[in-house]
Structure formats: C-alpha cells, structure tokens
Amino acid sequence: MSLWGWRYTWAALRETAAPLLARGAAAVLLVSDSVAEAQFEVLGAYNARGTYGLDSAGVAAPRPSRAPVLWLPRRMLDAARAPSQRLVARISSESFIYPTVNVVAAVPGTDARLRREYVLFSGHQDHDGVRVPVGGDSIWNGADDNASVSVALLAIGRAFARHPGRRGALFVWHGAEERGLIGSRWYAQHPTVPKSSIVAVLNGDMVGRNAPGRAALLGVVPPHRNSAALVAMALAANRRVGHFALDSTWDAPTHPEGWYFRSDHLPYARAGIPSIFFTTLLHPDYHTPRDEAARIDYAKLTRMTRWMYATGWAVANTRTRPAVDAGFRLER
Fold it and tell me: Helices 6-22 and 40-47: crossing angle, nearest 10°?
C-alpha cells in the first residue's frame, strides 16, 4: 500500500469505532490487520499532533470524543492480552494564537468602466512545515501542495503587470488553508476591494503532478457548478492552451474525497461569487515528506499556469461578467 493509504486507513478506523461508541462503549481498542499496519508510522506522525479547534472566521471546533479510541498494530496484541495490563494516558489541552497572513496583490485594469472590477487568482501558501519524522524525514515540503500554485500565481501576476486586462487582476495567497480554509474564509468575508467587484475566482491547489496530459477542473458538475459562463471560459481556454483531458469524477458530490469542499474557492462560492478550482489531483506523496520539488512535473505546471492565465484573461476582458447560476446551492 502506498503512503496515500493512510487516509483510507484513518477513515476505516473512525467508521469502525463510531457504531461502538454510539452503543455506549467506554473505550474502543482496534487491532489492525497487516494492510492497515503498513500505515501505522504515517498515522502515528499525524496523531502525535492531537486534534485542534478554531474559534475564528466562523469555524466550529470539533466535538471531542466521549470515549478514547486506541489503535494497536497486530504485533502488540500479545502484550495487550497479558494479565494485569494497565493503560496510562495523558490528555492535555491548550489555547494559543496561530499566526498566519493572506498576501494580496493587485494589477489595475485598463478600461475606465471595468478597471474597478477584478478577476481573483487564488492559492494557499501554507503547508505542514517540520513535523514528526516519517521514514527519517521530518520536513514536509509541500512542493505540489501548494508551492506549485504559489509560483503559478507569481508568473500570472507578472504577465498581467506587463499586459493588464480591461478588468483588474487580484492575487491572493491565502494563509492557514491547511488548518481549515481560514485565510480564504476571512478574505471572502473581509476583502480588500468591494466584494461586489470580484467577478470570478480562479483557485488552484496542487497543479504539478500525475499524468502529463490529465488534469481536473472542479465546479463544473452540478451541484458544484455555480457559473456556467465561467466554466465555459475555462473549458475554451483548455482547448486553446491547456489541451488536458479533464477528469470530472472528483467533482461529483458522491466522490469519497469531497475534494470540492477542501480548497480556497469554497468560501467565495458560498459568498455567491463565480468560482472554479484547477488541480492535478492527489498522489501518493500528498501530505508526506515526499512531496518534494524534484518530483514536480515542471512542463505540466507550466501548462496548468497558462491555462489558469488564459481563463483569467478571458474573464478580465469579456464585456459581460460571468453570472452565478440561478438556484445554485451546494449539497452541504
């Protein structure tokens, strides 16, 4: 099983424990099989952080479990069964301020009537930094997630600075995306320009990996599509400059990853702003120390950047701003 398998192991542990807790179990002790055990080191690194709640930007804190859930690898089962075994656990809680910022830049438009409207290019500039070592490596680089989009926005910004569109271009590198979309939730509520002046959001998250000719555009399939006009511009731009075969399966509300709800376009879509999400999707190195710069497909990253730019250029120069679909409503 790849390093990516930890995500599904974690979900399986939660799903197995939930009905037992619902029936009043005082504690749950799960013993894994050999497949899940392969993910023990990675999950151990994640769980060493504990859980956290957030009290800003309208984010609700998670409810604590009523009873502990413990996971043992099979190799520890005999020790757990030995007579007179005791478990001693220490649980601590602390409150602290998590420092983060949004980095915002703007390029004014050239049209006297449209220059105070903006197409917003979105990405996030945080990752997990230095963490508990996995396989001896403690640096969780985040090259694809999301340095790939951070540099893409720099290139797009340089292009707009040299040749501005009729509308202005706004660039937002959000902070604290990994902590729950905090930066984008804040900026969608407190933008540095009038909210009504943001005509579209083009968000990117992980745009430098996987098969060279494949990519995904989320916000295309209802109920996630909130602007057919914006989607049409993005698809036309792909035909002109991207030439990607697009995978729409991750945009479906039934997809187990719920990928649409996990990046910075979401708060803008909820605020009624036309929004789409460019990505090359998950890979086995996602949220591991192996997400390194050497693994980026730079030719693909360049194509993805040109696709985002061409879409934004179309939005910046169209006479009529893209409209929000009537009746848009997300499933959750």
Answer: 70
Averaged pLDDT for residues 113-132: 93
Q: What is the DSSP letter of 260?
A: G
Please, which pLDDT band fits residue 295 given cuts at 50, 70 and 90? very high
Query: What does the angle CA 256 – CA 19 – CA 53 come to, to the nearest 5 degrees?
Result: 65
**H helices within 52-107, ranges in order?**
77-81
Strands (E), the chain: 28-31, 69-72, 103-107, 118-124, 129-134, 137-140, 168-174, 198-204, 214-218, 245-246, 275-279
pTM of the model: 0.83
Query: Which of 210, 222, 233 is closest to 260 using CA atoms?
Result: 222
CA dist., res. 165 & res. 117, Å (int)? 11
Residue 284, preceding peptide bond in cis (omega within 30° of 0): no
Q: Which string of DSSP letters, residue by residue, matches 263-306? A: STTHHHHHTT--EEEEE----TTTTSTT--GGG--HHHHHHHHH
Of 151, 185, 153, nearest to 170 (Cα)? 153
- CA dist 101 and 83 (Å) reads 53
To the nearest 5 percent, what fractions of the chain are helix, strand and coil?
35, 15, 45
- Asked if residue 125 lies in contact with residue 178, where contact means CB atoms within 8 angstroms, the answer is no
What pLDDT score does 74 carry?
Answer: 83
Select from 93, 127, 211, 119 the least CA-distant residue to 172. Answer: 119
For residue 304, how many other CB atoms are within 10 A of its CB? 24
How many alpha carbons fall within 13 Å on the CB side of residue 111?
Answer: 14
